[in-house]
Amino acid sequence: MRAISARKTAVGCVLGWSLATGVCTLSRAAEPLRQERTGTVRVRVSPDRPDWLYSPGQQVRFRVAVTRDEHPLTDTEAKIRIGPEMMPPTIEKTLAVPGGGLTVDGGTMKEPGFLRCVATVDYGGKTYRGIATAGFSPDAIQPTTEVPPDFDAFWAAAKEALAKIPLDARLTLLPEYCTSAVNVYHVSFQNVVAWEGPTRLYGILCEPRAEGKYPALLEVPGAGVWPYRGLIGPAEKGIITLQIGIHGIPVNLDPSLYQSLSQGALGGYMMLNLDNRDRYYFRRVYLGCVRANDFLTSLPKWDGRNLAVTGQSQGGGLAIVTAALDPRVTGLAAYFPGMCDHTGYLKGRAGGGPHMFRLEGNRTKEKIEVSKYYDVVNFGRRVNVPGIYTWGFNDESCPPTSMFAAYNIIPGPKTLLLALEGGHFRTPEQAERVNGWLERLLKGQETPK
User: Fold this and answer.
1) Helix, strand or coil, per DSSP, at residue 1
2) Greater confidence, 328 or 18?
3) pTM above the 0.85 mark?
4) How far apart are CA 166 and CA 170, in angstroms?
5) Do residues 341 and 405 lie in contact, with contact meaning Cβ atoms separated by under 8 Å?
6) Which residues are paired to 388 by β-bridges?
7) Are 246 and 337 in contact (CB under 8 A)?
8) Can you name the residues that pair with 184 across neighbouring β-strands?
9) Which stretches within 62-182 are classed as H helix?
10) Whole-angstrom distance between the N-terminal and C-terminal Cα of the chain?
11) Alpha carbon 56 to chain centroid distance?
């Protein structure tokens, strides 16, 4: 049989003959692929030194590059703002960004601190942002807050009042959370009496099932109002863990309740009664952390010796406070601690989160004086146990100026783990290092430095 060759039809199709079936087929010719494109746009900013460190008086240069899908994005402009972190910029300009990026003179600082470059780019109807923060002799940063003369007497009296309150611990097994190696409980115990009346503190206890004696780890919470599920991982490695809330409400309820509270009754709790040192919200919180240790050390399975505390942000600050107030604590790990050096804003530099004195309306004499009794810096002065501390230079919630103000005056053995470009979050690498350090410390394998 003579083969019939395919030919194009007038409508752009291909006419062909199937020798197998004897059927003539009509198929559409391939057309050019039509596609739209989107991609991940990044604004990358970095200082010109790999360690991001300078001495006062030295000049810093910031490099700015814009990419989409990891390739240079051309024909863009960047708005550049440079100045001390959390302060108004001293340099503002808009520059074209070539494909290879650009370098901007950032100036210098005369005193120890941090100089931040923020670059924003408008592209495709959206605004993209990148930051980098150069440190100028951060190990020389000193606090601005002062220690009240009766600071120790005030907290000693508060702990005496706490000690008179029965623990009255209550445990409820949570079978749905338990594992083959760990029992998990919702727990509560009595805390100090607030001005409205008695209060309780709530948390999640994870305890190894096997008989024996174990070290204990308290995790104190970051800012906000949240439910919790407990720290099962460390418990499976032979560590009793207690994760607490600070607001005097159970921590295993429907998540919508906590959202309602954060937007209502507990919104702005960090400023509540700041003008009265005996009624300020955090008096009950700080003492509640000590009371949590009362509970942990009452457990029959505690080894009677090893007790550490950890937390991030607000919790990082609370970890420092707890280690200072409670001599039973043998070590701590603090991620980007908040509530450090509140009065920095009164001296023209960044203060710690929650930035209570950034607004001039809050700068009353009463509030400034009360803040000194609760500033993490003044507790840091009294921390003598081993600690690991970790943060990044790009943190905009807990500025590094405030964290170094606390870290630099801590007298106890300490290790600083920096994730330079990190913001207000912990990286997997940070968590791995810190968790390993805590486990070794609690099991007697970490040598204080």
Assistant:
1) coil
2) 328
3) yes
4) 12
5) yes
6) 333, 415
7) no
8) 206
9) 151-163
10) 92
11) 28
Backbone angles phi, psi at 21, to 5 degrees: -110, -15
Question: Which domains are delineated in the chain?
Answer: 41-140 (2.60.40.1930), 151-442 (3.40.50.1820)
Which residue from 66, 74, 71 is spatially nearest to 45, judged by alpha carbons?
A: 66
Q: What is the pLDDT of residues 154-168, one digit of tens each?
A: 999 999 999 999 999
Beta strands in 4-162 (DSSP E): 7-8, 13-17, 24-28, 41-47, 53-54, 60-68, 71-72, 76-84, 91-97, 102-107, 113-123, 126-136
Question: Per DSSP, which regions of 195-317 are E strands?
Answer: 197-208, 214-219, 240-244, 302-312
What single DSSP character describes residue 210? Answer: S
- Which residue pairs, CB below 8 angstroms and at least 24 apart, start in 121-127? 121/41, 121/43, 121/66, 121/76, 121/77, 121/78, 121/79, 121/97, 122/77, 123/41, 123/66, 123/73, 123/76, 124/38, 124/41, 126/41
Give the DSSP H/E element, type plus range, for residue 298: helix 281-298
Determine the average pLDDT of the residues in 274-287.
Answer: 96
Angle between helices 151-163 and 281-298 (to 10 degrees): 50
Catalytic center residues: 313, 395, 424
